[in-house]
Amino acid sequence: MTTQITSLSQYKEEYKKSVDNPEAFWKEQAETFTWTKPFDKTLEWNFDEPDVKWFLNGKMNITVNCLDRHIEKRGDQTAILWEPNDPKAEVQEYTYKELLAAVNRCANGLKSKGIKKGDRVIFYMPMVPELAIGLLACARIGAIHSVVFAGFSAQALADRVDDAQAKMIVCSDYNNRGNKNIPVKSVVDQAMDIGCNSIETVLVHNNTDGDVEWSDDADVWWHEIIAGQSDICEPEIMDSEDMLFILYTSGSTGKPKGVVHTCGGYMVYTCYSFRNVFQYKDGDIYWCTADIGWITGHSYIVYGPLLAGATTMMFEGVPTFPDAGRFWEICEKHKVNQFYTAPTAIRALMAKGDHWPAKYDLSSIKMLGSVGEPINEEAWEWYDKHIGKGNAPIADTWWQTETGGIMITPIPGVTDTKPTYASYPLPGIQPVLVDTEGNIKEENNVEGLLCIKFPWPSIIRTTYGDHERCKNVYFSAFKGMYFTGDGARKDEAGRIRVIGRVDDVINVSGHRMGTAEVENAINEHPNVIESAVVGYPHDIKGQGIYAYVISQNQQTDDTFRKEILDVVKREIGPIAKPDMIQFVNGLPKTRSGKIMRRILRKIASKDGDNLGDISTLLNPEIVADVKDGALV
Ligand code: WTA
Fold it and tell me: For 97, which of 42, 75, 315, 390 could close a Cys bridge (C-beta 3.0–4.6 Å)?
């Protein structure tokens, strides 16, 4: 197993080692895994291309490390503990032995449908064990998985399928969420009608016994391809740098991009970071509430915990069903030891009242995690007091889809915590704050743009099918550095607080959204001339979506608003629906015709009296008009 740091002096020592000699540091960690053939070089890198390779020429399979290598010691230990949406329904448990067998059967089933190494398989599924099993089955045979969050629309699904040129979609019939039964297969059917020409098979997991339309050409039942398959499937031998998965995420321009992670580095880093950040001990019950449709679910529900031989819980439902005590009821029921969730959920549950957590015994909780967006002080204090009862340190974990794993975080019981601060980097991570010219601000007590100046094993390798884009977005802003897109502050002790995005990405309830993406969706409405989208502070969601829209025919009523929301829902999904739509006669623009989002952001944030110099705009007169009509 990778090192688990247990004291401050050890943290300092490990950190120093990781900076003085990163290769020796990561070599030692990587050697704790099972390799079919050992790597012969630890690292080659060049951030200009970018071209980063870890554990060169090493041969391995990540599922051997997630499953096979644990069988001897913990074959009968629960690997996945599944809590259903309906609190009265039966909990499911897979031991490591059972999970390995299930993964192998599924892998053999996928093979029987022609899936082989390098093929892309899209998952559009609820939080059921079969989702984790499916991902691992892909990894077993070297197929590349790409999970699309099941809240995305048919159009968004088709866009991702087409970009990945996937051969198969795996979905469920319906999805249980709260008191809703959400059709899933029918969304896939719509996606197949819009695009998805590369798809040969739609594999349907019978989750709810619901009625579905069936196409004999493409559709196949999960249970049918699994039936009669062997429990044994020899793992495909993968190179460290073979692709493990693609995960689409939003950027400031264009369509979502497929972030690519590879086998070896991702394996080493997710295991290393999991063991340290969550301080997992044998026998613990670990619960991350994220959806596997996002990176947090990939790294810290599936891969990290299983690589570390942990018991990882998967929850099918939502925090408020049947009531706002559900999370805490589950923590009590399963005696959860590590609990990892998003600030949005904390704020939403905090608003429901202190009496909800008070009803349950939360004494099993040893540490708390937060992820996905900045956590405000009030939420941090509430989490600490009402959930951790003052003795479960909070790990405010900063990281990104592109980083693959947690980068900056307190280590519970090892480094101190400070509300709203992600604090210190994990060993191996070298963050810096830079000014707009890229000069590193070495001193403490400064603000700057957050970059990472040295590679770590799970760094993004490319954006699928478009390496130039990867280079432009992450490696061109500042020479020789990975640029995160975030702004941050360092306090007097060098602790880092991540303030938020400095680009046109907004973070709504911990979900990343590109403003351009939402604008493109809004502009699909025939009566929209132009639109501009910005984020604004939102009490629960962190950021809300504020859209300024120029209407074609002066129509500015609620019917039109509703139509715009429907278009966004159709193009992206309900998570991208604007919270506010303000109709305007024009948008402030620079002389070169670019929308001045800075001004629009200020107006949406009730800071419209503080716009600075607007005289250089192409149309300064429009500003007063926009301000007057502001909805905040
Ligand atoms: C934001 C989620 C402040 C940040 C794992 C980042 C955070 C983006 C934190 C990545 C945090 C994530 N404090 N901001 N602890 N964690 N972020 O790719 O803006 O969905 O760039 O990955 O979320 O979002 P993503």
Answer: 75
Backbone region of residue 554 per phi and psi (left: phi > 0; alpha: psi in -120 to 50; beta: other values) = left
In the DSSP assignment, the letter for residue 454 is S
Distance CA 509, CA 526 (A): 29
Residue 529 pLDDT: 96
Residue 476: how many other CB atoms lie within 10 Å: 14
Residues 6+ apart with CB under 8 A from 557: none
Sign of CA dihedral 199, 203, 209, 213: positive
Cα 625 to Cα 81, 227, 264, 584, 621: the distances in Å are 56, 65, 55, 8, 7
Tell me the C-alpha distance between 225 and 108, whole Å.
8
- Structure tokens, 198: 């590369």
Ligand 1 near 601 CB (within 6 A): no
Which parts of the chain have pLDDT scores under 70? none
Under 8 Å between Cβ of 80 and 93:
yes
Report the residue count for the chain: 632
| Best mutation site among 247, 486, 501, 509 for ligand 1 pocket (most ligand atoms within 8 Å of CB) | 486
400 Cα: distance to centroid of ligand 1 (angstroms) = 5
CA distances from residue 110 to 120, 140, 575 in whole angstroms, order as listed: 12, 10, 31
CA dihedral 358, 360, 363, 369 (to 10 degrees): -80
Ligand 1 center–CA 39 separation, angstroms: 32
Q: Whose CA is nearest to atom 13 of ligand 1?
A: 374
Taking only the tens place, the pLDDT of each residue in 191-206 is 999 999 999 999 999 9
**Which atom of ligand 1 is closest in space to residue 294's alpha carbon?**
20
**Which of 103, 166, 113, 109 minimizes the C-alpha distance to 139?**
103
What is the reported pLDDT for 492?
Answer: 97
Ligand 1 contacts CB of residue 235 (under 6 A):
no
- Which residue's entry shows tokens 């032995």? 97
| Chain center to CA of 248 | 9
